[in-house]
Structures are given as C-alpha cells and as structure tokens.
Write a structure and sequence with these properties.
This protein is of the alpha/beta class. It has a single domain (4-175, 201-238, 299-330), classed as Rossmann fold, CATH 3.40.50.720. The protein contains twelve helices and 13 strands. It has helices at residues 13-22, 40-45, 57-64, 83-101, 139-158, 178-187, 206-218, 237-248, 260-276, 287-294, 302-308, 316-330, and strands at 4-8, 28-33, 48-51, 69-72, 108-112, 123-126, 162-167, 169-171, 192-193, 203-205, 226-229, 254-255, 297-299. Strands 3-2-1-4-5-7-11 form a seven-stranded parallel beta sheet, with helices on both faces. Helix 1 (13-22) links the parallel strand 1 and strand 2.
Amino acid sequence: MPLACLITGATGFVGGHLAEACVPRGLRVRALARAGSDASLLEHLGIELQRGDVTDERAVRRAVEGIDTIVHCAAKVGDWGPVEEYRAVNVAALRTLLDACSGRPLRRFVHLSSLGVYPARHHYGTDETAPLPQSHVDGYTQTKVESEQLALDYHRRHGVPVVVLRPGFIYGPRDRTVLPELIENLRQRRVRWLGGGRRAMNTIYVANLVDAIFLALETPNAVGQVYNLTDGEAISKRRFIEALVKGLKLPEPRPLSVPVWLARIAAGVMEKWSRLRNSPRAPLLTQARVKFLGLNLDFSIEKAKRELGYQPRFTFDQGMKETLAWYRQNA
C-alpha cells in the first residue's frame, strides 16, 4: 500500500469519501483544493491541505512533491454548457498534472473516468473492448473520452503508471451536485418516464467505488488497464427513481409516451433553441437526459472482478438506504 497519496477533487463527493477512507488505512494524504472550497471535512480528518487549482501549473508541481500515488477525482460534471469549459478542467488540467508526474517514481496514477464514454446507444453487457466514439452528445462525456486517451497516452509514451476506472452513475451521501439536481427535477415534475423506466441503469454506490480505487492502487497488473465499475446488480431506472420518490416523498414521474428516437429529435431541437438564446440552464430535454432516462445502460464488470478482485461490498438497497438517510437529514 502506498505511503503518500495526492487526491485531486478531495473537497468533492468521491474525493471526500476516498480521503476519509484513507485515514484508517494509515495513509498520508495530501489534498489539492481550490481556494474558497469547503475543506472542513479534510481539516477534521487531519489531512494535509494545499490550496490551489488543478489548472495552475505551479500549484500542481508543489502538490506532487514527495507523493507515491495520485488519484485524480477532480472534474467538471454536468450535461450542459460549452465543451471548452469542460475541456479546460477535464483535459487541460489533467495534462498539467501528468506533465508534473512525468519522470517521477510514482507507484500509481488512478484516473477516474466514466461509463459515459461509451456510445449513446443501448448497452447489454458492454465490456472494455468496445470502441469509444470520437464525438459525444455533451461536453462532459466528450472530454471524459479525451481525458482517458490523454492519460493512457502518457502511460505509453512517458511511463506514467496509469489505471483508468469507469464508474457508472455514482450515488451516496454528500453528493451535492448530480443527485441533488435529479431530486430537484423530480420535485419540480421535470422528470418523465421513457420506456416505462424498465431499462437498466449503471449505478455504483460511492463506497463500492472507493473500494475499487484501493484495488487499483494495490494491484500491480492493473497499470495500463481500463475497468468498468458498477454495483453489479440489474437496477432499472424505475427502481432507482422510485427509491428516491418513496424515500424523499417526491412526486412520481409521469410517462412520456414517445419512442426514444423521437425524444432524441425533440432534445436536439430544444438544445439548439437554448444555445441560440445563450441559456445558462439546460432545456427540459437534452441528449444526455434521453440517454439517462431512455437507454439500456448495462455494462460488464467481469474484468474488474477477474483482475482487481472487485466484489461490490454494498448492495443497491444498502447503498440507497444510507443515501436517503443522509438526504433526509441534510436536504
């Protein structure tokens, strides 16, 4: 197990859970955190805090000094906005970090990507051999593909010991970005069923993801590899959303009685109109939301099980119980 770990994005959802899990393992953790971001959890844990932005070359070079391993959690997430805003954080900042690592005796560089990198189509047990498209439906997934390619290129050309993890839809306590937006959209009745909600989601509870990160840090043969990660259960969109609806007493989504192909056309029109108006808010329907609500998103995690020894420790019901308990107390 590494002695010193740098976590980017440690004031965020996944990074915060990872930092918390490092403490009982006896790891020395350094967190690179933006000025003004809430670092109270990290301070409470006694984690070394360095203020600076992942886009700042000098701050990044200071952050990697004396570090054995890096887990890169920092990212701009969302399904709306100019692709260049996503690229500045998800690609350019990653290049800065990789440049700072080149030539250093790192044990491991774990890069968090996303199952969103796969094509926007139905998936039935898709594994890591599936080719990735060069063009995507939104800035987040577009730049996640680009960042994966960049990280793996630095592994091949410069020997950076990169492992790429592709988690699905991450849920759990302390998410203040993605799940709260879904909850608010449910509250405002902005969510509709596509296909009756029967199709699969690609969920992963945050603690299961943290377990997989430690496995990626510890497994020698993981270097240069890419791994899909989910809870390993067949969870439908209806089951996931109804857990939120019942647990938080939210309105039940109404059906949208149109096929996915027509919803995609409608999303394209809405997106175009919103861009013409320079709207800062996403329209009611986007290509990313059609993908989330209407497509079957089932991915194989057999490679992670076989090579990393990954076995999801928390079931969906257990993870959702913890998630709902936190939101009821903190919403």
